[in-house]
Amino acid sequence: xxxxxxxxxxxxxxxxxxxxxxxxxxxxxxxxxxxxxxxxxxxxxxxxxxxxxxxxxxxxxxxxxxxxxxxxxxxxxxxxxxxxxxxxxxxxxxxxxxxxxxxxxxxxxxxxxxxxxxxxxxxxxxxxxxxxxxxxxxxxxxxxxxxxxxxxxxxxxxxxxxxxxxxxxxxxxxxxxxxxxxxxxxxxxxxxxxxxxxxxxxxxxxxxxxxxxxxxxxxxxxxxxxxxxxxxxxxxxxxxxxxxxxxxxxxxxxxxxxxxxxxxxxxxxxxxxxxxxxxxxxxxxxxxxxxxxxxxxxxxxxxxxxxxxxxxxxxxxxxxxxxxxxxxxxxxxxxxxxxxxxxxxxxxxxxxxxxxxxxxxxxxxxxxxxxxxxxxxxxxxxxxxxxxxxxxxxxxxxxxxxxxxxxxxxxxxxxxxxxx
Length: 420
Ligand SMILES: Nc1ncnc2c1ncn2[C@@H]1O[C@H](COP(=O)(O)OP(=O)(O)OP(=O)(O)O)[C@@H](O)[C@H]1O
Ligand SMILES: [Mg+2]
Hints:
By secondary structure, the protein is α+β, with helices and mostly antiparallel strands. The protein has three domains: 8-201, Heat Shock Protein 90 (2-Layer Sandwich), CATH 3.30.565.10; 204-317, no CATH class; 338-419, no CATH class. Helices cover 35% and strands 23% of the residues. The chain has helices at residues 8-14, 20-33, 68-72, 79-83, 166-187, 285-290, 303-337, 347-359, 369-384, 390-398, 403-419; strands at 38-45, 51-58, 108-119, 122-131, 146-147, 153-161, 194-197, 200-201, 208-218, 223-232, 242-246, 252-257, 269-274, 281-282, 298-299. Strand 9 and strand 10 form a beta hairpin. Helix 7 (303-337) packs antiparallel against helix 8 and helix 8 packs across helix 9. The radius of gyration is 27 Å and the shape is elongated.
């Protein structure tokens, strides 16, 4: 039995933050990391909720026997991570620590991997076994893979289950998986990715609060971008609001955060942009010099990419507006209730605070009571001495305002002037 290079105690202490559900997610990610499109979770429990069987299967490329030792041996230095150090802008590979497969000990005594991989024209299969008492050991390296008619993929069977029951799975698994995987299933919906629990596909669409599909076209270059805007009911447990760029085959080429950072307005969104234009595109500057044929690759300075960026920013601005309005209104109410604004505040001051909160909610995000009072009094002073017009340049020196935001401020000042 080959040893993993760390003691069982060391492994368990490194993995103490794991709960059964987080662990289940690790096995699912391992399937997706291995290019699976379908993950199946199957369990059977008796009437007391005791789990009689529990398996997680994927249709990924399996674990090549020749590479088993290399894949299962080095701890905390997952191969996937080494290969993908520079790929934090891609979702395809989740694994990075080289420990996910060991987390089963938090809910089961044993884990058995039955894996099928392709070797030349044949499919071969063998088993790997690990148990919680000796988690630094595993079998499989000396196994002789057998020919099989089964399709490629890996099935992990957990036995000696504790800390998980059929009832708790029934109650919590779907909710947990939605928060963890809904964005990933949406991202890969063009490729029909799914997670199937006891025969029922995880209904990731149920987490969608708003969906809008549109198509924009950059006339000059005749580039077409298909946009899917999704707003989520709930915050994802592991993914921020992002833009995802997909190629013609709906494969993700790159992802990056949308400009909306401090999201105190619960505006959780994902935007997928699909175009054949991204079949060959240098998202990183260095990719151009490295191995991209510059004539083929689009770049961020292309007029069509800049057109796309503008359209996306505009889309988000429109979609976010009602959230900002609600946020600003709540803020004004809070300021009045907490006597930050005088009990009978000047209409101009309330309006100024509300508009500012709509334009730059970040300004108000983490202020304590004194800071709130200070900001309010300063604004009041500016208003009273007719110097509120200074605010645009003052603000601009702190946060960059786009032309639309500047225009909104101007409008506010004009409105204030009319109230005088
Ligand atoms: N279902 C699977 N299909 C194919 N290969 C797998 C599967 N499960 C594990 N592996 C292989 O075993 C390796 C170790 O898996 P493990 O989950 O421990 O680490 P990781 O996924 O690389 O990193 P992380 O700790 O973030 O999960 C993986 O890198 C992968 O090569
Ligand atoms: Mg993993």
